[in-house]
Design goal:
Layout (H helix, E strand, L loop, with lengths): L1 E5 L3 H13 L3 E5 L2 H9 L6 E4 L8 H12 L5 E5 L4 H10 L3 E4 L4 H15 L8 E4 L2 E4 L4 E4 L2 E3 L3 H12 L4 E3 H9 L9 H12 L8 E6 L3 E6 L2 H4 L1
Parallel strand pairs: 1-2, 1-3, 3-4, 4-5
Antiparallel strand pairs: 6-7, 7-8, 8-9, 10-12, 11-12
Helix pairs in contact: 2-3, 6-8
């Protein structure tokens, strides 16, 4: 992958670039938020971003917010930072990060998480390009879901969650399990991220009885997506 690293610690930059290039990736590094966003505005393409939180001219969370609002919604983003509070982790995930690692990071774990994020960004490539579940047609090459003649606009994380729910329809899925499998985060983290994304998908994918689906919250456990019989839908 072609990776952009936003990090102002020169020693850290040299180490991470050495690890990434040793794993077969290419890496450009930036020491300030301004140089990073300037490169993206010049239409430089990257497959994944690694962001530090504490920067000389801005914060990583502000750069993350800019990426998701102004630049792209789908490119994977991993935070690598010394900030280790649960609130920081939750804030980054809810703002749009795909993963969060606390310094000092380990070489093999970082490379594994980068590779996992890359696989999720191209989810389904190894499994075939199209999957049909009920009225939904999932086109992995486009990272898109079609509902009849409608193409439903989804972020990368919404797409991954939608595929996960549809493939597991009928099963009771805990919030922790969803967080672990879709967000690659520890299941014990207390966050409303899952609930927020579920609510968005319920509306975007028409997962309601009038369309033949029920996406239910199960008290103190999680969610279940069910296909309804025609009599139930009626």
């Amino acid at each position: 992958m072609y990776i952009a690293l936003l990090e102002d610690d020169k020693d850290q930059v040299e180490l991470i670039k050495l690890w990434l290039e040793g794993a077969g990736h290419q890496c450009d590094s930036f020491a300030t938020g301004d140089s990073f966003t300037t490169a993206l505005r010049q239409h430089r393409h990257y497959d994944l971003f690694i962001l530090d939180w504490m920067l000389p001219d801005t914060s990583g969370i502000e750069v993350l917010r800019w990426i998701r609002q102004e630049h792209c919604q789908n490119t994977p983003i991993i935070f690598v930072t010394a900030r280790d509070s649960e609130q920081d982790i939750v804030n980054a995930l809810q703002t749009g990060a795909d993963d969060y690692m606390i310094k000092p990071v380990k070489q093999l774990e970082l490379v594994a998480r980068i590779n996992a994020a890359g696989r999720r960004a191209h989810i389904g490539d190894a499994e075939g390009e199209v999957l049909e579940i009920g009225p939904f047609r999932i086109v992995f090459a486009e990272r898109a879901i079609h509902f009849g003649n409608e193409t439903i606009e989804l972020t990368q994380k919404e797409f991954a969650l939608a595929v996960f729910l549809l493939r597991n329809n009928g099963k009771l899925l805990s919030r922790g399990f969803i967080l672990e499998k879709v967000w690659n985060m520890p299941p014990e983290i207390n966050t409303r991220t899952v609930d927020t994304h579920i609510s968005r998908l319920r509306n975007k994918l028409h997962l309601t009885p009038e369309y033949g689906w029920r996406l239910s919250a199960v008290y103190q456990h999680g969610y279940r997506l069910e296909r309804l019989e025609s009599s139930e839908a009626a």
